[in-house]
């Protein structure tokens, strides 16, 4: 069964070096998608366990990374601060942010011990910490054998990365509570100081299907065009490790999300309720930069057909650099 036509696809524009490899990969992906779709529609209860629910709002996200112990000065000692879950520990850190006077966070990282067997007398400890640099947090231990779960909390103006293009810089507010592994990848990218090969290669406007605020026109189709930018965050020469599914707020205008497990990603130019929870949303473009995203859809494109879906591909990809940024207007 082919993927729904309203969903963006993972295929990139082919070139001479990749044509044969992509064709084989495409055949495999289509076969896998068909098998997955058959299982999904045959066993809907297996696709989403009873009683589970996906996070719909970034405000509801409070997740961390298992097997990670962050270091740093403690603002609240875990030996005197025990909580029932990692989410509660995260919420406790969030409660100290922002400070009423300057909007800063007294706590910007948390460490929780939730494995009763391994934690023993430290079970439930919730350490609240303050990093010297929250975008380069101190890590004391990482791995499957680590009993701690850790996460970050960004205050006003923190956790913003810039995708610097020749049209301007798209500032993206990252969401560590929703997508901690994705945020970790961006921290890694910043450490590399290089994003060679990172680019946008697909650009489709809103057409007449969505208004300027991203609202879908009543009784309208959902594409084409599909109101999105699509690109890759894979660095040339650096193998990309697929990112497991994370919390999924609904895709709204300005949402930034992985396509599949990455490195392909999209920026949505409209509210896409029809996509349900298909994508891991790891950030959003700051409102003042959406004009740059819209301008990209006006660049020359050509049409291509990916798995029987007509898409618009940029004739000249828009390359970008990933840079650390601070922006006081961050929400």
UniProtKB/TrEMBL annotation:
One of its GO terms (molecular function) is peptidyl-prolyl cis-trans isomerase activity. It comes from the Eukaryota. PANTHER family: EXPRESSED PROTEIN. The chain crosses the membrane at residues 21-43. Residues 161-313 form the PPIase cyclophilin-type domain. Keywords: Membrane, Transmembrane, Transmembrane helix. This is PPIase cyclophilin-type domain-containing protein.
């Amino acid at each position: 069964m082919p993927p729904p036509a309203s969903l963006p696809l993972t295929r990139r524009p082919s070139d001479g070096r990749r044509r044969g490899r992509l064709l084989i990969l495409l055949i495999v992906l289509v076969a896998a998608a068909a098998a997955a779709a058959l299982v999904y529609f045959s066993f809907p209860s297996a696709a989403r366990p009873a009683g589970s629910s996906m996070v719909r709002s970034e405000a509801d996200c409070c997740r961390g990374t298992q097997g990670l112990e962050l270091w740093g000065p403690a603002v609240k000692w875990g030996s005197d601060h025990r909580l029932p879950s990692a989410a509660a520990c995260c919420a406790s850190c969030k409660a100290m942010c922002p400070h009423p006077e300057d909007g800063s966070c007294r706590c910007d990282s948390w460490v929780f011990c939730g494995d009763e067997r391994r934690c023993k007398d430290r079970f439930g400890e919730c350490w609240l910490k303050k990093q010297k640099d929250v975008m380069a947090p101190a890590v004391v231990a990482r791995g499957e054998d680590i009993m701690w779960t850790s996460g970050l909390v960004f205050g006003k103006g923190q956790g913003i990365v810039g995708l610097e293009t020749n049209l301007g810089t798209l500032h993206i507010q990252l969401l560590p509570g929703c997508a901690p592994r994705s945020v970790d990848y961006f921290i890694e990218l910043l450490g590399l100081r290089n994003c060679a090969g990172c680019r946008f290669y697909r650009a489709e406007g809103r057409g007449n299907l969505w208004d300027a605020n991203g609202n879908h026109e009543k009784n309208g189709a959902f594409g084409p065009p599909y109101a999105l930018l699509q690109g890759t965050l894979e660095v040339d020469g650096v193998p990309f490790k697929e990112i497991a599914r994370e919390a999924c707020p609904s895709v709204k205008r300005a949402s930034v999300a992985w396509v599949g497990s990455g490195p392909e990603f999209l920026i949505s130019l409209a509210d896409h309720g029809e996509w349900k929870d298909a994508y891991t949303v790891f950030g959003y473009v700051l409102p003042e930069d959406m004009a740059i995203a819209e301008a990209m859809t006006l660049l020359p494109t050509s049409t291509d057909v990916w798995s029987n879906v007509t898409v618009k591909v940029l004739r000249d990809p828009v390359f970008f650099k990933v840079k650390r940024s601070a922006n006081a207007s961050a929400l």
